Amino acid sequence: MAEAKPTVELRKGINGLDKVVLREVKGSSVEVYLYGGQVTSWKNNHGEELLFVSSKALFKPPKAIRGGIPICFPQFGTHGTLEQHGFARNRNWSIDDNPPPFPASTSTKTFVDLILKPSEEDFKTWPHSYEFRLRVALGPGGDLMLTSRIRNTNSDARPFSFTFAYHTYLSVSDISEVRVEGLETLDYFDNLKGKEHFTEQGDAIIFESEVDKIYLSTPNKIAIIDHEKKRTFVLRKDGLPDAVVWNPWDKKAKAMPDFGDEEFKYMLCVEAAAIQKPITLRPGEEWKGRQELAAVPSSYCSGQLDPEKVLHG
Ligand code: BG6
Questions:
Q1: Is there a contact between 305 and 232 (Cβ–Cβ < 8 Å)?
Q2: Is the minimum distance from the CB of 85 to ligand 1 under 6 angstroms?
Q3: CA dist list (Å): 74 to 8, 62, 79, 126, 289
Q4: Which residues 6+ apart lie within 8 Å of 99 measured at CB?
Q5: In whole angstroms, what is the distance from residue 149 CA to residue 161 CA?
Q6: Per-residue pLDDT tens digits for 151-180
Q7: Reduced to 3 states, what is the DSSP secondary structure of residue 43?
C-alpha cells in the first residue's frame, strides 16, 4: 500500500467560496477560506471538530463568517475609528506563492501561505500600504499554527499602528463544564462595564453568564479545560501580549442573526491579541504574531486536572 502523504488542496467551499484543505497522515485536518483568510475547521486524528462554527454562519460577503478563527486587523473591537474588528475578516485573501522564507525551525510541510494587500477602497478608510502574510500550518501531531507577518509598505515616511486578534471560537461540550487556567490574578478590561479596569481573583475562570474581557500582558500559555469532554486546549502565543475571553450568553446570542439561540453553550472564544498597546510599524518594518493550538486529553488526579502538567508541562 502506498504511504499516506500530507496534502494541501484548493477546493470549493460553501456558496462556491474558495477554501484550502490541509490534511496530515494521521487524520487531522484544517480548512481555511480565502474569504477572511479564515480557518473554519480544525479536526483531530479522529475527525472530531475542535472549532465552533455557527449553524447560522452565512459564508456570504460582506458579513464575516461566524466561527472558526476570524482575523481582527487593523483594529480589534471598537478600539478605533474603523468598523468592529477591522476589515481583514471580510476581504478576499490570495494564495501567496512566493512568501519570504521562515526560520528553518518551523519545519512542518503541511501549510498554506495567504496574503492580503489593501484595495483602493480600503485606502479611503485606512490610508496605508501593507502586506499581511498569514501562514496556516498543521503539525504532524495535529497542532494548528497561525503566523501573521505584517509589513508597512508605505512609500512615504508614514508609520501606522494597529491592534490585532486571532478571534478563536473553540468548540466545547458544555460551557458550564469549562475552566480557563493561566489568566488568574491578571488585570483586565471589562467590555461589559464600559472597558473599566479590574483585577481577576485567584481562582481559575469558569462561566455562568456573559463574559467579554481583555486580559492584559498574559502568560504565553493558556489552558482551556473541558471537563465533560476530558479535553484540554493549550493555546500558546508569541508577540501577542493580551488575551480576549468572550461568550455572548443567552440574551446576546438571541440578538445575533448569524448565531443560534442556544449555541453559546457549545463555544468559547479565547483570542491571542495585541490590544492595550497598539503595534506601530515604520515603513519597511515587519511585525510577527503567532498562535498555536493543541488539543490534548485532560489528565485527572482524584477528579482534579493537574494544572502543573497543562501549564508547565
Ligand atoms: C469579541 C468582542 O471578541 O467579539 C465582543 O470582545 C464582540 O465585544 C465579539 O461582541 C463578536 O464580535 P462580532 O463583530 O464578530 O459580532
A1: yes
A2: yes
A3: 28, 17, 10, 9, 13
A4: 113, 115, 133, 135
A5: 14
A6: 999 999 999 999 999 999 999 999 999 999
A7: strand
Triad 264, 268, 271: Cα angle to 5°: 140
What's the CA gap between 232 and 241, in Å, rounded?
21
Please state, in angstroms and rounded to a whole number, the distance separating the CA atoms of residues 188 and 185: 9
CA of 170 from ligand 1 middle (Å) equals 14
- Looking at the CA of residue 77, tell me the nearest atom of ligand 1: 2
Mean pLDDT over 249-277 rounds to 98
Q: 77 C-alpha vs ligand 1 centroid, how far in Å? A: 7
Helix residue ranges, H only, 53-159: 120-125
CB count in 10 Å sphere of residue 244: 25
* Alpha helices per DSSP H over 155-303: 249-255
Domains of the chain as residue ranges with CATH: 7-312 (2.70.98.10)
Residue nearest to atom 10 of ligand 1 (CA): 248
199, 226 contact by CB (below 8 A): no
Q: What is the CB-side half-sphere exposure of residue 31 using CA atoms within 13 A?
A: 20
To the question of pTM greater than 0.70 for the whole model, the response is yes
Rounded Cα distance between 89 and 271, Å, is 15
